[in-house]
Design a protein that fits this description.
9-stranded mixed β-sheet, alpha+beta, D-amino Acid Aminotransferase, Chain A, domain 1, D-amino Acid Aminotransferase, Chain A, domain 2, binds pyridoxal-5'-phosphate, 357 residues
Length: 357
């Protein structure tokens, strides 16, 4: 990346960080990366103190939501090295999201360099407590002040980071998911479900709120056409262990292609367990439960890595996986994935991107 300017904060806020009271996404580290697209090119890459930005009320993103984001994590390893997990996959996915949203693409190498340089500068924010890390949130949005409904001529790309704690707490009974049979997250054909674009999230809030009011943690989405095939859960992909088989919904254009999902499929393949990636009807899961064959259900995503599901509720029926309490496969996959991320286990696949001092 040409001409990166770095202006460090004169007053670090790191001293105020309270690791015992860390809420996901609430505290931002000292710096942010920003660059601007105008006159046909991305320009002016900078790392500056994190803080408010100026935006005109007429900025197109505020009206038409032409934007995309990403989510990845950096970890402080047992050897003192900082590692980003597969940032190249997030760079590639952001390029796809940008393409779909008519946003000028961000070069994948520039994306990885921006994230790496920023994490390097704020490496002091990464705790060595087990399960802690630095969540990295890149976002790109249209910035031109214009109310015509068309793609913008100017954009901002910003990367910010948040210190985050462990998700997997001892004594967890697993997530409870309400199978959503009324609202839809995405359109079945030709929609934007496979992109990480902001509008996909605002439209899910009412279903999520209703589910929480009914005592569930999250919604498990069915396809937007027939409400018959399972898609994913909130910001996480889903896997089922039925007998000895592992099944996950195939990427069908409506499902977000999770980096964690892809990594888990590979780790299972390393164990000679072939994951069946195909359409998974909710009826199949109900039938497996009735047969006593629904062993484990788990969800995967950057924030939580791998999380067991303790309860699925479909049309008022509770389906509890047989091994929900011990969740042996879920736990072993969590241990293996996080072992690689923290440098405890050898990284055979070359997934870690070390942030050099
Ligand atoms: C980000 C996201 C995921 C998980 O993707 P990871 O790359 O594993 O973090 C799954 N579903 C949705 C809808 C998402 O936005």
């Amino acid at each position: 990346m040409d001409g990166l300017v770095i202006r460090r904060t004169e007053r670090s806020r790191l001293g105020d960080l309270d690791l015992d009271r860390l809420v996901f996404g609430e505290v931002f580290s000292d710096h942010m990366f920003t660059m601007t697209y105008r006159n046909g090119a991305w320009r002016g890459p900078e790392i500056v103190p994190y803080g408010p930005i100026e935006i005109e009320p007429g900025a197109m993103t505020l009206h038409y939501a032409q934007m995309a984001f990403e989510g990845l994590k950096a970890f402080l390893g047992v050897d003192g090295r900082v590692r980003l997990f597969r940032p190249d996959r997030n760079a590639a996915r952001m390029r796809l999201s940008c393409g779909r949203m008519c946003i000028p693409e961000i070069d994948e190498d520039d994306f990885v360099e921006a994230v790496t340089r920023l994490v390097d500068i704020d490496r002091g924010w990464i705790s060595d407590r087990p399960g802690f890390g630095l969540y990295v949130r890149p976002v790109v949005f249209s910035a031109e002040p214009h109310l015509e409904v068309r793609p913008s001529n100017s954009y901002r790309f910003i990367v910010m980071t948040c210190p985050v704690g462990a998700y997997f707490r001892t004594g967890d009974t697993g997530l409870s998911l309400k199978v959503e049979d009324h609202f839809a997250r995405t359109a079945p054909h030709g929609g934007v479900g496979e992109t990480k674009t902001s509008a996909n999230y605002a439209t899910t809030f009412s279903a999520g709120r209703q589910a929480r009011e009914q005592g569930f943690d999250q919604v498990l989405w069915l396809d937007g056409g027939e409400h018959r095939y399972i898609e994913e859960a909130g910001l996480m992909n889903v896997f089922f262990r039925i007998g000895d088989r592992i099944v996950t919904p195939a990427l069908n254009g409506a499902i977000l292609p999770g980096v964690t999902r892809e990594s888990i499929v590979t780790l299972l393949d390393d164990r000679d367990i072939a994951v069946e990636e195909r359409p998974v009807a909710i009826d199949e899961i109900v039938a497996a439960f009735d047969d006593g064959a629904l062993e484990e259900v788990f969800v995967t995503g950057t924030a939580a890595a791998v999380l067991p599901v303790g309860r699925l509720n479909f049309s008022g029926r509770d389906l509890k996986p047989k091994q929900a309490e011990t969740a042996p496969l879920t736990r072993s996959l969590y241990d293996e994935l996080t072992g690689i991320q923290y440098g405890r286990i050898e990284d055979h696949h070359g997934w870690n991107h070390t942030v050099e001092v």
